[in-house]
Amino acid sequence: MLYAFGEIALVVIGILIALQVNLLNEEQKQKKKEQSILGNFEKSLETDLRNLEFSIDLNNRVDSSISILLDHFEQNKDYNDSLKFHFGNTTFTPALRINLSVFETLKSNNLSLISNNKLREDIIDFYNYYITEVQNSNERYADITQYVSLNLYDTRFRSFWYSNYKEWSKNRVKIKPEMIPLDFNSLKNDTEYLYFLRSLPNRRNILVRDHINVLSLQIEQLIFDIKSELAK
Q1: With contact defined as beta carbons under 8 Å apart, do 117 and 141 qualify?
Q2: Positions of the chain with pLDDT lower than 70, given as ranges
Q3: Which domain holds residue 77?
Q4: 98 burial class (0-12, 13-18, 19+ CB within 10 angstroms)?
Q5: C-alpha span between 230 and 41 (Å, rounded)
Q6: Cα–Cα distance for residue pair 160/152, rounded to 1 Å
Q7: In contact, 133 and 211? CB cutoff 8 Å
Q8: How wide is the angle at C-alpha 214 spanned by C-alphas 132 and 202, nearest 5°?
Q9: How many domains does the chain have?
């Protein structure tokens, strides 16, 4: 009986050891998956940050063009050929794009794959903010530019973006949008157009610039936290 009990004990111990080994192996697999997904998040967020930096540059260019145009109107300056590019710059729609593919992959695999609860919640909050707030603002700003294009530009300019579009589409050179006014002097007293131009910076601050600032800060913090987690 002692021998039998000993045999049973050995079998039980062997099973427990095997289960423990399997558990450790599974934990290692999960840890490797977590490291891989966090690495993908890091790369994706770094790309998003570079895209936001481009949006910042584009926004600054639009702001500069608006200031130049308003200065010409308010100071009653004469038209010069460079103004056609400033008119064109005001039509840019600086949409904010964040890559959702890594987040969608995480959701399909299991959000709990990220073991650090705070990091997981911060990642979820970041992408939810983009999906619920930023994308809605992108659509609202696009609606504004679309409305203006259809109801304001068509009676005041020769064409929408008469530029180097063919060269841009073929060789990917820097695009140069041109908007040549039909009557520059009449624009100086065009209350509808001036209202749009003067209010555009505030609209862009609310719908674009504020989101850029929030997204940039969130991304920088997430990249730092992900690097710290991977270093563990």
Answers
A1: no
A2: 1-6, 9-12, 14, 16, 18-27, 94, 161-175
A3: 2-231
A4: buried
A5: 11
A6: 11
A7: yes
A8: 85
A9: 1
